[in-house]
Amino acid sequence: MDFGLHLPSAGAGVTADGIREVAVGAEGLGFDTVWMFDHLFTPTGLESKYPYTSSGNYAVQPQDPFFDPLGLFGVIAGATSRVKMATGVLIAAYRHPIVLAKTIATIDNFAPGRIVLGVGAGWMREEFEGVGVGYDRRGARLEEYIRALRAIWSGDPVAFEGEFYSWQEAGFLPAPTAPIPIVIGGHGDRALRRAARVGDGWAVVTAPGQGAGLDGASARIDLLKRFLDEEGRDPAKFTLSYQQALWFSDHTNAKLPLTGPPDAVAGSIKRLEEMGVSMLDLIVLGPPALVLEIGERFQKEVVPLL
Q1: Residue 15 in contact with residue 292, Cβ under 8 Å?
Q2: 3-state secondary structure of 201
Q3: Is the CB of residue 102 less than 8 Å from the CB of residue 172?
Q4: Which of 39, 46, 110, 216 has the smallest set of CB atoms within 10 Å of its CB?
Q5: If DSSP codes are grouped into helix, strand and coil, which group holds residue 211?
Q6: What are the tens digits of pLDDT across the range 48-70?
Q7: What is the per-residue DSSP string for 218-273?
Q8: Is 49 buried (19+), middle (13-18) or exposed (0-12) by CB count in 10 A?
Q9: CA–CA gap between residue 197 and residue 63 (Å, rounded)
Q10: Vertex 77, ends 131 and 4: CA angle to 5°?
Q11: CA-CA distance, 126 to 249, in Å (whole number)?
Q12: CA 49, CA 36: separation in Å to the nearest integer?
């Protein structure tokens, strides 16, 4: 199991120093990966509904900072020596695939094998409109986008002709030092089919109505495995990442399976392993010192139980 700690890169009070402190501290504590979210801006009159709460409310406010994950990749690559960097997830369509591919390949050449690219189709219509990208066929756009990234990263001169993106034959070096894993987000059946068809993994998530906690995740993973079988793909070679709040308390919460006493948290992780999950993105809400305090307790009190 790859244990990751989420960076405090978005929300009230986040700072550059705090993000760097957690990234460096996470590496020192032995975490494998640091994770980050992606949004470009928060509208003051947001009308789009956040798909992962029953109310549709979005936690980040317009006055809250939201640091760019690609910029953070570069900073963290220079501030650390081992820890991987992952997005959970980046909304690919906000950047042209040539621009994103060039940025990722450049950073990978300075930090070989340390990038995991989680990508999603997106949900906030206002952002799509703000950057002049079509919203209505964003799922199809994402699938083409992934094919475009892999063409650019092939190391050979390549032309591309698609519905959304096209360019004449050109060289795009430097290529990444090794294939960049692309983990696809999204909760709907179409998102799962997309992940099975073109992804290297799926960022496990459930939306209201799909079940909560480990039971909900298990049901969606079972459906994904059916889609993988239809595509002739081996689930054992497919990455499943799981993002969840981490908190220690005397009581468990079935909807938040990584909260409770250490033995209960360890039990939930063992079940996730049985389900095929291989990467954890642990979210601790609070200032950097608290994130690292809970992260240290996780390493000392939960990891030995595994």
Answers
A1: no
A2: strand
A3: yes
A4: 110
A5: coil
A6: 999 999 999 999 999 999 999 99
A7: HHHHHHHHHHHHHTT--GGGSEEEEEEE-B--SS--TTSTTBSSHHHHHHHHHHHH
A8: middle
A9: 39
A10: 85
A11: 38
A12: 21
- SS3 call for 289: helix
Q: Is the dihedral of CA 86, 51, 282, 228 positive or negative?
A: negative
CA dihedral 27, 32, 38, 44 (to 10 degrees): -60
Asked if omega into 174 is within 30° of 0 (cis), the reply is yes
Continuous H helices in the chain: 16-29, 69-79, 97-110, 125-130, 138-152, 189-198, 213-230, 262-275, 288-297
How far apart, in Å, are the Cα atoms of 231 and each of 193, 224, 225, 226, 263?
Answer: 9, 11, 10, 9, 38
Q: Evaluate whether 63 touches 43 at the Cβ level (below 8 Å).
A: no
| Lookup: tokens for 197 | 């068809």
Place of tokens 């992780």: 269
At 137, list the tokens: 């066929």
First to last CA, the chain: 10
Question: Is residue 145 a contact partner of residue 93, using CB atoms and an 8 Å limit?
Answer: yes
pLDDT band at 110 (very low <50, low <70, confident <90, very high): very high
pTM, rounded to two decimals: 0.96
Which DSSP state fits 176?
P
Which position has the token pair 């793909």? 233
